[in-house]
Amino acid sequence: QSVLTQPPSVSGAPGQRVTISCTGSSSNIGARYDVHWYQQLPGTAPKLLIYGNTYRPSGVPDRFSGSKSGTSASLAITGLQAEDEADYYCQSYDTSLTGYVFGTGTKVTVL
Amino acid sequence: QLQLQESGPGPVKPSETLSLTCTVSGGSINSDSHYWGWIRQPPGKGLEWIGSIYYSGNSYYNASLKSRVSISVDTSKNKFSLRLSSVTAADTAVYYCARQTTWDGRYFDSWGPGTLVTVSS
Predict the structure, then answer these.
(1) Mean pLDDT of B62-79
(2) How far is B56 from chain A (nearest CA, A)?
C-alpha cells in the first residue's frame, strides 16, 4: 500500500481538462519534498512528465502542468487528446520510510 | 542519447536469487550528477522503488526489501546490477533500471524498457 494516494481512474472527452490528485502526508509531500509525475503508455516504461512539482522536461507539451499545496499535489491535462490515454504516477520521498515512493497510479481514459 | 537496457537470465525458481544487469550507453555511469536505480512493477500493479546506487558504490534501498537486496556498480563496463535473494511469486514483476538525478528531489529522468522476471517452480 503506497503512502501516496491517487484516484484509480479519471476520464474526459477530447479537448476537456482533467486533474489527477496525489495525496500524501507530513512525512512526504507535506515535508516539502518535491513531487514528480510519470506517464506510462500501455506496454511501455514510465516517462518523466513533470519534475520539481511544476517543471516540464523538454518535449513535454504545455498541456501538462503540475502543482503542489500542503500535503497534496496535482497533475492537470488540458485539451485532452486520445494519445493521453495512459497510467500516471506521482513520486516523492518519504522520511518515515527513508526512501522514494510512488503513488498508487491513475488510469486516464479519453471518452 | 542516453539508453539503458536491462538483461537477465530469465525465469527464477522460488527461494533462488534474481540477478539483473543494466547496461548504460550514450553516457557515463561515472556521473556526479546522477544515481542509478531499480524500480519494479508487478503485473497490473503500480511502481515500487527497489534501490539506487552512486558511481562510487554508495547505495540505499527500500526498507521493505533491504534484507534481500544488493545493488552493485561496474564503472569499467558502464553497468550496474541488482540481486534479490529468496524470491517468491510476489517478486514476479517487470523490473526497470533508471537514471536518477541528485538534485531537485531526485526524480528518474531516463528509463530502460524493462524486463519481465517470473518466479515460478
Answers:
(1) 97
(2) 19
